[in-house]
Amino acid sequence: MAIEQFCHFNRLTEVIGQCHSIDLNDSPADLIPLPHPSGASTWHRTEPGKQLLNDALELIHRHPAWQQLIDNHSIPTRPR
Q1: Which of 21, 78, 3, 13 is nearest to 51 (CA)?
Q2: What is the pLDDT of residues 52-75, one digit of tens each?
Q3: pLDDT given at position 74
Q4: Residue 49's CB: how many other CB atoms inside 10 A?
Q5: CB under 8 Å, gap of 24 or more: what pairs does 45-48 form?
Q6: pLDDT of residue 75
Q7: What's the pTM value of the predicted model, to 2 decimals?
Q8: In the chain, which residues have pLDDT < 50?
Q9: Which long-range contacts (CB under 8 A, 24 or more apart) does 50-58 make?
Q10: Most buried among 30, 42, 52, 78, by the most CB within 10 A?
Q11: Cβ(16)–Cβ(60) below 8 Å
Q12: Alpha-carbon separation of residue 35 from 30, 57, 78 (angstroms)
């Protein structure tokens, strides 16, 4: 999994839905992992994966870097 390149975990519930501070090429970065969108996996379509995916998407939506992209490029936000 791509997530494993940046953080160690045993279960997806330990990393999805959270913001992780990491060091990326000697620079601090925030990592908000998302589950793999594989059609074979139902993890993101059943609880707790469904809620954790929503939590992760909300973290991305509220993250300052994403907000800056929205402000700079007039990207429409998702409807509430």
Answers
A1: 13
A2: 999 999 999 999 999 998 888 766
A3: 67
A4: 18
A5: 48/13
A6: 60
A7: 0.82
A8: none
A9: 51/17, 52/12, 52/13, 52/16, 52/17, 53/16, 53/17, 54/17, 55/16, 55/17, 55/18, 56/16, 56/17, 56/18, 56/32
A10: 52
A11: no
A12: 16, 11, 20
